Structures are given as C-alpha cells and as structure tokens.
Amino acid sequence: MTKPFVLQLGVHAGKSLERLMFTDPRYVSVLATAGNRYAGWLIKRGEDRVGPVCTGCGQADSRYLVFYRQRVDDDFTILPGAYCDKCAREHKNLGRTVMSLGFSATLWPRRKIDQIRIAKHISEIFALKGASDEKLFRFFRESGSSRHLR
Ligand SMILES: [Zn+2]
Predict the structure, then answer these.
(1) What is the DSSP letter of 8?
(2) Ligand 1 center to 114 CA (angstroms)
(3) Which of 4, 39, 49, 112 is the most exposed place for a label (fewest CB within 10 A)?
(4) 23: phi then psi, degrees, rounded to nearest 5
(5) How far is the centre of ligand 1, averaged over its atoms, from the C-alpha of 58 (Å)?
(6) What does the angle CA 81 – CA 114 – CA 44 come to, to the nearest 5 degrees?
(7) What share of the chain is helix, strand, coil (3-state, %, to 5)?
C-alpha cells in the first residue's frame, strides 16, 4: 500500500479504512475476518502503538488505557490520557480496567457508541483529531511510537 485504502462499495463507500479504524473499528474488524488482508494488517498495526508520556507520572512511552467501570449498566468512564506500566498497575490494583493502548480496546464495549468513544480517545492521545487520510495512513505505516509522527 502506498496510499490510504478508500472503499468503493458498501455503507462506507468513499471512506478510507484508516479513518474507519477511528470511526467504526468493528467494521474494519469484520472486513479482516472476511479475508480483507489490508484490513487485517491495519488491525495488527493498531496493536503496535506506543503513546507519548504517561499521564500519571510523565515518564516516556505510555502503553495502557484505563477505564473506570460503573456498577450499573455497562457504563464506564475513560480516564484521560494513557499510562506507563507502573501507573497502569496501580490503577489495576484500585480495581480499574486496564487495557493495552491499541485498537482492540475499541472492540471491548458492546455498544458502537462506546467503541467510538474509545477510538476517539486514542485519536486524541496520538494528536490525530481532524487528521487527513494521508496522515492516518502514515500513522499506521510508522512503527510503534507516536514520536516519529511529530
Ligand atoms: Zn506513569
């Protein structure tokens, strides 16, 4: 691939798969399962992410997202930012849900609106809000770290 993969058919015709990773990650996951190899590659790359400094302690490289689950319903709160190993462990000890900083976290909640909330959170961590398809494409091409993007 040398440019964003824009869908020609279906409900998301005209949109790039790279963008759909942030707006409908479940759809990309379904395409990957159906045998779309580029979708499969994107999903894999989406797990290989290292965020900027830890929101908790300021140490370089954050690798975890933290969620505070409510007792009622499936509701949850996303803690701002992303966290290092040490801070993530502390959150886990407090009974919070800790997940790797990756797009599989977006597939954790059942409701699509919650999946998109997490995807949006990830786009904010990597300063990709309002990014062009080309910038999103480069994000997935780059290995692990967000630092190469800046
Ligand atoms: Zn930390």
Answers:
(1) -
(2) 25
(3) 112
(4) -110, -20
(5) 6
(6) 70
(7) 45, 15, 45
Distance set, CA 97 to CA 33, 78, 113, 117, 147 (Å): 27, 10, 19, 16, 26
Q: Decide if 108 contacts 99 (C-beta within 8 A).
A: yes
Q: How far away, in angstroms, is 68 Cα from ligand 1 center?
A: 17
Which residues, at least 6 apart from 131, have a Cβ–Cβ distance to it below 8 Å?
A: 123, 139
**Residue by residue, what is the 3-state secondary structure of 108-143?**
CCCCHHHHHHHHHHHHHHCCCCCCCHHHHHHHHHCC
pLDDT digits (tens, 9 = 90+) for 112-121: 999 999 999 9
| 28 CA distance to ligand 1 middle (Å) | 31
- Ligand 1: distance of its center to the CA of 113 in Å? 28
pLDDT digits (tens, 9 = 90+) for 40-76: 999 999 997 899 999 999 998 999 999 998 776 678 9
